Amino acid sequence: MIHRPRRLRRNPALRALVRETRLTPDDFVLPLFACPGNGVRREISSMPGVFNLSVDEIASEASAAYDVGVRSIILFGLPESKDELASGAYAEDGIVQRAIRAVRRCAPELIIIADTCLCEYTSHGHCGVVRGGEVLNDESLELIARTAASQAAAGADLVAPSAMMDGQVGAIREALDDSGFENTAIMSYAVKYASAFYGPFREAAQSAPEFGDRRAYQMDPPNAREAMREAELDYSEGADILMVKPATVYLDVLKMVRDRFDLPLAAYHVSGEYALIKAAAQKGWIDEERVMMETLTSIKRAGADIILTYYAREAIRALNASATS
Q1: Of 12, 83, 127, 321, which residue is most buried, by most CB within 10 angstroms?
Q2: Is 245 an active-site residue?
Q3: Is the dihedral of CA 141, 144, 147, 152 positive or negative?
Q4: Domains, the chain, ordered by start
Q5: Alpha helix segments (H runs only) across the chain
Q6: Contact 163, 140 (CB under 8 A)
């Protein structure tokens, strides 16, 4: 007998009928960057199509994204001022807290995730308390937990700790429960590598470290088995969703986490991964939409239930266009 797999590839309808991995609009989370001011819409040079947005503009952007089909966003903040203890991260009137309230007013059905970290708010640019040139783990937990509780009080549906401090999920869960936010979920950056693909984000969030780097607390890229330990710890501390970051260059790790844990799994298609596609497309070297969709499909095929991507709107438009063609 001659097997002919091509029989099921002959036309678009047959290919769609047997397709194993399907993207849907509900898969995507759109990252947005809130900054001080009014009427501010400042494009990030290394991330074409992505902007720093003042609170009024971020509310409009979130509402417009919802109208396109985006159902979830994650908010990052650029404060008016920074200090050693990241006070802007947990202030009641902090930039992300104001953005959460503004988005809630204009798009009440939108799922709002708050990135829970200190690096955007510290004068030294690290993700915790620094003393003697060292990032102190346990002293940072209190501030991270205060930040999560403040974000929940502002109306965030989920908080997303990204500092990679040991014990941060447990500290946040305790703080949320003690503050009456037992229904606020935690999406943990459980497996976050010290990646060079974060470069454009540093510009977007103005969060480059003043000294050194983050390799003492973010994961070493060659390690995969260690990722299972990190995910296991966050799972045991009460994380509701696990995340792998970056996405495409760690698809093997994403698959390992998917096979090991039954929690919902997210993957962050990060700034550098987005910028590479954008740059090649601007040169005319690739078909941007096809590469975008192929990339996002690979992330879901590896096991992600949720994909954080700056391409969320474009991907949803492409899916909708495909559905109506």
Answers
A1: 127
A2: yes
A3: negative
A4: 21-324 (3.20.20.70)
A5: 12-17, 55-68, 87-90, 95-106, 137-154, 168-178, 199-205, 225-237, 251-260, 271-282, 288-301, 312-324
A6: yes
d(CA 230, CA 157): 24
Whether 278 is a known active-site residue: answer: no
pLDDT recorded at residue 212: 61
Instruction: Report d(CA 159, CA 171) in Å as an integer.
Output: 13
Residues 82, 245, 278, 300: which is the catalytic one? 245
Query: Which among 82, 192, 278, 300 is annotated as catalytic?
Result: 192
The H or E element spanning position 307 is: strand 306-309
Say whether 241 sits in a helix, a strand or coil: strand
Cβ distance 30 to 53 under 8 Å?
Answer: no
Tell if the pTM clears 0.90, that is, is over it: yes
SS3 161: strand
**In sequence order, what are the residues at sequence separation of 6 or more whose Cβ sits closer than 8 angstroms to the Cβ of residue 309?**
28, 29, 30, 31, 268, 269, 274, 296, 315
The pLDDT assigned to 133 comes to 81
pLDDT at residue 131, as a whole number: 84
Pseudo-torsion of CA 70, 76, 79, 85, nearest 10°?
A: 150
Q: How far is CA 297 from the centre of its chain?
A: 17
pLDDT of the residue at 211: 65
Closest CA to 29 of 62, 3, 51: 62
Supply φ then ψ for residue 3, to 5 degrees.
-85, 135
- Amino acid letter at 175? A
Tokens of 104: 């809630």
